[in-house]
Design brief:
This protein is an alpha+beta fold. The protein is built from 11 helices and 9 strands. The termini are far apart. The chain binds the ligand Cn1cc(CCO)c2c3c(c(-c4ccccc4Cl)cc21)C(=O)NC3=O.
Length: 289
Amino acid sequence: AFMLSRYESEFLELECIGVGEFGAVYKCVKRLDGCLYAIKRSRRPLAGSANEQLALKEVYAHAVLGHHPHVVRYYSAWAEDDHMIIQNEYCDGGSLTDAIVKKEVQGEIFTEPELKDLLLQVSMGLKYIHSLGLAHLDIKPSNIFISQQPSTGAAAEGESEEEDGSSPAGVIYKIGDLGHVTSTNNPQVEEGDSRFLASEVLHEDYSHLPKADIFALGLTVLLAAGASPLPQNGGEWHSIREGQLPKLPRELSSTFIDLLQLLLDPDPTKRPSAKELCKHPVLTEERAG
Ligand SMILES: Cn1cc(CCO)c2c3c(c(-c4ccccc4Cl)cc21)C(=O)NC3=O
């Protein structure tokens, strides 16, 4: 178009880092500040459609969620030439899915301390989201992004190690993709990925939505621990929701297995809250657990 769009005038597009039915995500440099951003460009949803609701919920959630070391930071969103555009913090370490695939390809596994660090960091992000009366509803490895070290980028300020508890040079996990976020008070649930969906949400019981995030987080950690790809439906889908943990190709301590079992309890009230996980001895004590 003859008129340079804001996207083209403000950003230099470096590469496409993701494509889906939603649209595409690009790694971009903002010309003004020289920082990297992840920018999702999607077709503008039909006015009044369910997709428009999703697009608006994503932006509302980012606006409410402000800044947290374990939630991907939002900078701006706008509409132009029939596209919706959202500009987020760029996480330079790929997604947890990429990290899991990389471990498998290299014949390595996440150690138990690494799995506990993952569970603790994402629990901190969920504690923040849940404390604001919101539930994510699409927690899964492809929606957890990795920053290799406290980035020097625009998002770095305000990140201090005691806040997120990870070692300074360690990996930082950030919850992203807020497209399914909903209020826990008056929920309008758009189900997330069925592989991570808690049974009660499938049955439209929305009385414990934060615990649905805890269930999905339990399955997410099991995948990082080496579990086979999860079923989308069928017998195995149901057996997991009856408390039958997917098999793991390696040993884990009984205390950690017991905790993961609790995250996947069929009864949402039995699952620990994100707040309880953040101070759970199995996750917070140096050698114990
Ligand atoms: C596919 N993909 C790859 C990445 C980079 C990971 O190293 C990525 C990011 C995001 C997103 C994203 C997700 C959902 C909504 C908006 C965005 Cl920008 C998608 C991303 C995002 O918000 N921040 C990202 O780094």
